[in-house]
Amino acid sequence: MSPISAPRIQKTNAMRELDRAGVSYTARTYEVDESDLSGIHVVEQLGEDPDRVFKTLVTVAPTGGHAVFCIPVKEKLDLKRAARAVGEKSLSMLHVRDLVKTTGYQRGGCSPVGMRKRFATVIDETCILFDTIMVSGGRRGLQLEVAVDDLLAACDAKVADICERA
Predict the structure, then answer these.
(1) What is the pTM for the complete model shown?
(2) Phi, psi of 40, deg, nearest 5
(3) Taking all residues of the chain, what is their mean pLDDT, rounded to a whole number?
(4) Which of 101, 111, 104 has the alpha carbon at shortest distance from 144?
(5) Which of 47, 84, 92, 122 is most buried, judging by how many CB atoms fall within 10 Å of its CB?
(6) Phi and psi (nearest 5°) for 133?
(7) Dihedral angle over CA of 125, 128, 134, 137, nearest 10
(8) pLDDT value at residue 46
């Protein structure tokens, strides 16, 4: 009897970039529900701590520049704090119709790693509470678990307090 092997996962830009950088990661797949692309759905599918699973948000400045922010899936981005973190006066969320042409990724599968262009990237300070966090693997249905320090280096990201606080 031959051993059962896990199905092979097709590499994404995010995975290829992490491979090139020598960063190890664990790929985790989940069932996609096109009617619910929320991070909370991902957490439920994976059975993970929602504080450890981060969503990737892309913003645009009045000058036309873009910045990327990773925050825990249950949190909301504070645009004023985010703007301060990247030295902008203000930011707004990138419209979903512009996501693919700007990043190369679609909604629900946007990773901070492997975008078409490298943008200023900030990860919420809560990431330092964990050895590893999970971010999108570059397509719907795929998450990557990566050591925080490795992810910061791979994205040339900084850590800041960027979530709304009650």
Answers:
(1) 0.91
(2) -65, -40
(3) 91
(4) 111
(5) 122
(6) -130, 170
(7) 70
(8) 86
